[in-house]
Design a protein that fits this description.
four-stranded antiparallel β-sheet; 621 residues; six-stranded parallel β-barrel
Length: 621
Amino acid sequence: MVPADVASAAAAAGDLPSSLVQRTDGVYFKAEAPAAMLQAAANQVFLSGACFRGLDYGVFIRALFGVGPDLPEGMAGQPLWRFADDIVPFSSGRRDLYKSVRIVGGEAEYYFEPVFVEVEGQAPVPAHLDFGEFVADLWTKGIRFGIDAPVVREAIASGKVARLIVARKLPPVPGRDAAIVEVSESIHRSNAPRLLANGRFDLHSFQNRFPQVKAQVRLLRREPPQAGTRGFELSGIVLEPPAARDVELTTVAGEGTLVEHHDGVDYLVASREGFINVDSKSKRISIGPKIVSREGVSARTTGNLKLDGDYEEFGEVQEQRTVEGGNITVHADVFGNIVSRGGTIALQKNLMGGSATNADGNIRVSGVASGALLQSKKGEVVLGKAQNCVITGARVIITEAYNCEIMADEVLIKLAAGCAIAARRIEIDSAGPRKQAEMQLHVMVPDTSKYDEKLAECAARAARHEQQAQRCKEQMDAITADQEVRNYLQLASKVRKQEVTLNQEQLVLFQKMALKVGPSLKMVARQQVAMKEAQAAQQKEQELGEHVYKQKLMVVGGARCTVRMVAGDMVVRKLVFNPDLGPAYLLPPKEVKLRVRAPLGTQQPLFVGSGGQFDWSGSAA
């Protein structure tokens, strides 16, 4: 049976909503009930003229709005949440004790002062406010959220006069936008000085200006958007946070990358090994075998570069800067040094005062090379216009050359003026002096004395073996000239061929004849063996001589010099070099200048003149 006071409270509150449970030990919310239903239940109680005694505001606000302090230990997961001791009437006399509130800027201000209850026929009696009634009163005044329970309880308990903020709205907390974060340190540039193997720092080079990554390396990770948390007005109206923005890795995935999904996380992964390039406009990351730079090479931007892959530069290469790599392309002027391990050095504009060196490839300069050094150890050098340059290579092709020192295996020039050129094959359309610089051509002829000596030695040894074989033959002829030996050999030949058949007596005589000439036949056999050995040795020396001669022809090659028009003073002479020391054009630049500008001396020139044409070819003989 329900006690009378509980029944009266229930009557004061009207029929209890289904989401509320009132028992002798307290008032409970059903945990399974939606927040809107619980708010409606509280509203029904308050508007029916009742309130909650012994209200646990933390549980109350958590149940109605899902915010506030955590539930007490052990309550979470329970079907019922206890939040008050009882539901009691909130009479009009008690309600008059509570003053109005002042709401400004999302905050509710209340003036606490002593209160009195009017008693008929008596002086007003001091009274005390109750927290449960305070919550019910504010609810009916439109404040349903954000009461500062500790402040209100302390103010009620102290009974002091005070103007306090008793409730505040809860602003929404914005969420977190989706983000793309780096997961690999290898994609970072490092502008620290390069650390050398000896422990010192190279102040002219950066540690890692152009990052390189391996295949299957994770570069970026997508952090998904995170929703914000709701806020609430004092009235309980929901304040939604702004929607978090999303982003996909596909917006930054370029060539050489792909998006992979692992354990619920999206990653941008390198699909191949190469260098990282970031497009400044689209912000896409691509990975390829070539480094592409648009900043130029200088002490400020990159320092000296030592690269593992191909390189393409759209900015200038400044003085005293060095770029080392393979397949180097520069679209602007070069004032520094370009060093390639192979491939092609392609300079689309000018090479001014710097150098271009390729260990295993070609060099091409589309513009002008001036005061520069160009060396291709195994390839060709192609220039439009060169002036005051030192140029070496297996093959040099120039449209116009002025005051240059050139050494190569083959040189092809349309117009040469004031140059000193040394090569095995020279072909020039027009050649002449320029101001004080004379035009000198050197047809490079290899020193073949080593091969000539070997050929002479082979010929002498072959002659000696031939003489030895001849002496053996003469001795054999002398022995076989004896009558008895000749008769035996003739009879023995006929017996072997079965042209003659011997009877028993003839056979005995033949055997006696053989015994008599036996020593002479042995001597003939020894001389025959010696003759064959001498002939074999002679043939071996002849074959060796033929091999040495072929080697000589390969070394000599086809030395040739052709000048179709001699336009001024020009001298042509031979320049003997040692082929065992490798190609002559691999000499250091200073030695190249000394060799091609050396005075004529006592050597007889092939040509000295100021007009006409010149055409000369060497002989391997």
